[in-house]
Fold this protein.
Amino acid sequence: MKTFLIAKISPLYDYWESDQNVEDELKRLQKANKDNPMSVLFEKEPYKWENLYQSIVREIIRGDYDSLKGLNIILNTLVDAEKNRILQAFVINDVLNKRQIDELIHNKFAKYETKRKPFRFLRILYAIFLNPYQLKIRGPKNHIYEKTGFIMLYIRNAIVFKNNSSL
């Protein structure tokens, strides 16, 4: 249930469900914080941004509270209204707890005693290249990871369709 909520709370959820035409692209770009140099990721590479967002939130849910800093960086690429909408949705849907939300709002992160997460990086690379969140890229695929993600979604859908048609 939380995995669907993570995707639905995303500022890009409507974009992935849309035709991704010029109008949809303009709506998406209105959510970018033009004052933050990191927003170039949100503006130019929405597929990578979405994979990072979903991967980081899942890491936090698994107990890696050091990932709050990464989530803060990702959320700061958005305009304040969109960032606040996401934080409220996290609270309402019990995705993150109040302490975590407070840390994100105030940019003051507690020192968490966590073990090094050697596979965190690999899990994020896996997400970016293999598209486990089933992001629908309808426009041009400019990067190798967008191409592999598109192909993986195509293969996944073909297998599911084949399995469903044999029932």
Q: What stands out?
A: The chain has a mean pLDDT of 90.
